[in-house]
Amino acid sequence: MESNRAWNTPVIGKTESIYKWNQPLLSSVLDTDFYKLTMLQAVHHQHANVDVEYAFICRSKENLSHLIPEVREQLEHLANLQVRDDELRFVFDQRFREYLTDDFRRFLALFRFNLRYVHVSEVDGQISIRVRGPMVHTMLFEIAVLAIVSELRNRTKYPDVQLSQVRDRLYQKFEWLEKNATKEELADFRVSDFSTRRRLSQEVQREVVDIMRRDFPGQFVGTSNPMLAYEFDLPLIGTMAHEWLMLHQQTDVRLVNSEKAALENWVHEYRGRLGIALTDVISSDYFLNKDFDLYFAKLYDGLRHDSGCPFAWADKCIKRYEDLRIDPKRKELMFSDSLNFEKALAIHRHVGGRARVGFGIGTSLACDVEGVEPLSIVMKLVRVNGAAVVKFSDDPVKNVCEDPSFLQYAASVFGIKEFNDKVAQ
Asked: Most CB atoms closer than 10 Å: which of 7, 151, 396, 407?
């Protein structure tokens, strides 16, 4: 749907603006996170008839209601997008991603964003964005909504940021890393770009990925953004997100067995590929002590950290592998929670060769310019087939549940003695 709105272009000097002032913010269905595609294939095969609801959450509590007209307009542009043949050939290249199937390729080729499923309004003076409908047709809205809201807010609040500032800041961080890390550490310092959802703008992420692939002093192993992976011929990084495990809380398994069912179904879908599991849907302690037994520890290549203390989490994971008589040096610990180079290097040193380590860095890569305060926004699965789901994160700020009675019930089922009942709404 084309808009008749006249774009307001600010007066910019001869330097390079980071914003798309006169065109849609998203130009490709593949401007998303790769794990949305891997989860979408699994949902397409195993949960095609499941209806879900997603809710936008601004954790930083910033009032974004003034963006509602522009958000609606940008969402209208999504309806014009479809995956191009050349993009499909890249994503489904069987030399690298033989686990993606022909029937899913046909589905993705036909996929369109259907605006009937997305609802934008003002509630209690704040923006409310809800996506409701079949999971196979709604789950790709998540990253699109977050990227749109992030860029619209940033260009309203920080209209004069230039690409030169982005470049200068990134190279300053490279210099810090080269000064503070040894050559041996840099040789094994593996970083991926995870910055799509909270980037300053699409142009900033593109610039950052281009610089990282050319000049990063450690190992730049790829990006989670399929559009940019195609543009720069980079590896695609991503497996599963929290919604995959949360989905199984309201399917045909007992709640207490939901994580095990999700892990089992992922293995069924990918047969040993994409074997990095999230640990913090029902807390990492519960995951490691109750659900992550010898069977799954052998089946999965490693684990991903996304909340709580990364140092304590690494020690717990390594101990769990050792208790199961598995050599943790053969397993991967992936870290992706609010990282920068300083924090990642400290984690790298803490693990100290006891396991393979990788880092997915987002906001600190593509939303790090002096004077810019990044948004803290997420879009979380809140209902499956009309029933609530829950997330007991290792960080209470990241808890999710909209139904107090289900929250209490899930806490009793999983033996969660302490939880924050003021979870994100």
From this structure: 151
